[in-house]
Amino acid sequence: MADMGSGSAETVVVVGGGTMGAGIAQSMLEAGASVVIVESGAERADAAHARVADGLRRRFKNDADPEAAAAPLLERLDVSAGLPSTSDAVLVIEAVPEDAALKAEVLASLEAHFPPTTMLATNTSSLSIDGLAAGLAHPERFIGMHFFNPVPRSALVELVTGRATSARTVAAAETWVERLDKESIVVRDAPGFATSRLGLIIGLEAIRMVEEGVASAEDIDRGMVLGYRFPMGPLRLTDLVGLDVRLGIAEHLAREIGERFEPPQLLRDMVAAGHLGQKTGKGFYDW
Ligand SMILES: NC(=O)c1ccc[n+]([C@@H]2O[C@H](COP(=O)([O-])OP(=O)(O)OC[C@H]3O[C@@H](n4cnc5c(N)ncnc54)[C@H](O)[C@@H]3O)[C@@H](O)[C@H]2O)c1
């Protein structure tokens, strides 16, 4: 991995150009890399291009001519329906939907296409890195790069190391995160990594407190914002993420880690009633 993370004209390949892939591509373009987005068909590839172009226009919205400001960055963006013709990339980031079988299939095809010197990353938010690495011939160059939504404005990338991830791969990933003007934390592969595990347990406890009538949702949130300097209270955050999404993660972590992640009955009841948070207009708050 001689020039991993350095050099002048590196190409980064992003596989899956949806919400996260488009954001990762935009951030990579802003950091000066050339980017190829791999999508599963021509229409989806066009849609991914449009998402990145939109993101860049928003990024330069205060410029006199946002379109002109975005243009030179877009020149470094290519989209491909299927694997690109070139295998010359220093970093490949997989950002296809959260489906273990799909990711395993995509990673196997990437490993066959790119030489063992190309660093391989996954943006999975919950799947085991060791599990995904099991099918790889070169797991030492594989790492989790857990980006946050919206990628261009988020400050963190959680780097998740599998048993086989080499120190060199971790160092290269850290260098990339610096180039993106973000900060990284390094976490051993464990269910929920560090951020989802801790963020979720606070959210679940806040829901239990509403359930037990300890305080109102507003007061619990204000307590954490004003008393603990949280940027947003755990219940408002739950509304933004989606109660159904949080319930799914809680059930997963209850199975993997233990009963302290068992979802509160109130969360189950609200999801069953269709009160999923911001997206349905009602959660712990009215939206
Ligand atoms: N959305 C979030 O807030 C968030 C945050 C952190 C991590 N993640 C993770 O990022 C990954 C992607 O999530 P997303 O929200 O961007 O999903 P998304 O559905 O918006 O995007 C996925 C993209 O992958 C494409 N795709 C599907 N199969 C493909 C294939 N075989 N080859 C190439 N492209 C293919 C789809 O066309 C789609 O554009 C998931 O693993 C998710 O868990 C999501």
Structural domain tally? 2
* Overall CATH class of the largest domain: Alpha Beta
Shape: globular
Number of strands: 8
- The residue fraction in helices comes out at 40-55%
What structural class do you assign from the helix and strand content? Answer: alpha/beta
CATH superfamily (homologous) name of the largest domain:
NAD(P)-binding Rossmann-like Domain
List the strand order in the largest sheet: 3-2-1-4-5-6-7-8
What's the multimeric state? single chain
- What's the number of helices? 11
Largest sheet: 8 strands, mixed
CATH architecture label name of the largest domain: 3-Layer(aba) Sandwich
Low-confidence stretches: 1-7
The string of secondary-structure elements, in order, is EHEHHEEHEHEEHEHHHHH
Q: Proportion of β residues? A: 5-15%
Task: Briefly note the CATH topology name of the largest domain.
Answer: Rossmann fold
Bound molecules: nicotinamide-adenine-dinucleotide
Distance between the termini: 49 Å
- Please tell me how large the radius of gyration is: 20 Å
